[in-house]
Amino acid sequence: MKRIIRYLLTPVLLISVLSSCHKIDVPITTELTPNVFPQNDAQYTQAIGPVYTALRSDFGVAYWFEQSLSSDEAIMPARGGNWYDNQNYRMLHYHDWNRDHGFTSTCWNYLSRLIGTSNQAISILRQTMPEGASKNSNISELRTMRAMGYYMMMDLFGNLPLDTLYGDFKPRANVPRAEVFNFIESEVKAALPYLNPAAGVTTYGRANRYTAFALLAKMYLNAEYYTGTARYNDAIIACDSIIQSGRYALEPRSSYLRMFYPNNGPQMKEFIFAIPFDPTALPSPGTNGMMYRARYDVPRSMRTKYSLPYTPEGPESTLPEFYAHFNDPGDVRNGMWLTGLQYNHAGQPIIVNTTKKGYDFTYTGSDGSAAYAYHVNLTPNIVLRLNAATFDVGNDEIGWNMGYRCNKFYPDSTSISRNQNNDMPIFRYSDILLMKAESILRGGTATLGHTALSLANMLRAERSTSAPLATVNLDYIYTERAREFVHETWHRNDMIRFGKFEGAWGFKTNNETYRRIFPIPTNAFVLNPMLIQNPGYQ
């Protein structure tokens, strides 16, 4: 089993002490005061650890659902009432969520906790660490992580309260997104000179200098949407800072799929910043910290194929509109999809022994209880056969096997629970190349001898055996981003930037533009009555 990075395995007591929401209602009483902890380099690192634990906490579940199920990338219908879950998944697909939507509330709390935990860790290190390069580096790392939390929260919710002083419980109103953007930019720029320039094992899973540049590149690429002012040349400069470092490279076709295996990690030369997951790591209190992709993506009939110690449920699939992007037969990324008739690794058909009624609940023959051997067949279309109003395809083999499945984060047979070892990347080198190509196509100035075409072909050469492109446009970049970053929480962001979020897909027809950001949840107003609800929401 992959060894988790040491700073994530902080003691339970320390995690409990340092974890915090954006606003804390009661004082924390503990023996671990700045007078006795931290006092040396190892303890300073432990004080940083809870920030990364907070980042891991709800990233792989609630945050993933919020970003992906609200796009055309993934859909999770009910099956005979299973996975209806108070309409949480249905609302994301139909774009009719409200301020009481479960995952929206969880994401607000999750990212507030990340920011609050960062504030607390910064406060402790400012009080306890001696002045010098080490203090500057550690606090800059924490400021970068706080900025990342604000970026993720700004991307989802737009207008936010800015709170950087731990222990100040005064409520603050949310400020416009452009002001939040400026704050994040200033924080990252202030941190950059002091961040560790190393890459690889020593900084894996931690914010280094190139994490900061990648965050800036992502902000500048989206700046026209976030603030109304285009910053494509700034995006190119940030990308070039990573490209010219020479510390990262594209994984070749031969190892692309392995980037997402359970044993991935610092050996992956594309990973600029990734979240390490380990079933033995303790989560933040009140969260799960889980990485559940196989549970959601692998059909229940395939437990034996992947030697899993549990039965996966497989309620999640993609839509035909999204799968249509995978139209190059020479593309290695086709290998991460489960489609059509299914076979085990020995080439034998995967058979489910059921009844005629168990195969098809609409069967009306008198022999519905007769035995039926079904060769598992994943079909592309989602049909609400049982009840359209409850988003239900039916609790039979036909229903459970509707939709192609993305098996990108390969099932982990070493874990005794549903939690996987696969680390989840946030920034990869391929994203840097595509962000630069897109920025050039949107009017930025080409640099380093690159063109949008040459950058697109760099990636294509490592993903497909097909001939290089002769031309490239924004439509191609959008499609290539869909292929490259499926299930990595970026597709909603891409759909908005490319003007596709208001389109119709699956069963969704809602084109309300205010849903590009989510409502501030009801529970947030209870804690902070100075908040102002986002436009369009009651």
Automatic annotation (TrEMBL):
Residues 1-23 form the signal peptide. Residues 71-221 form the SusD-like N-terminal domain. It is found in: Cell outer membrane. Keywords: Cell outer membrane, Membrane, Signal. Transmembrane segments: none annotated. It comes from the Bacteria. Pfam families: SusD-like_3, SusD_RagB. Residues 389-537 form the RagB/SusD domain. Belongs to the SusD family. This is RagB/SusD family nutrient uptake outer membrane protein.
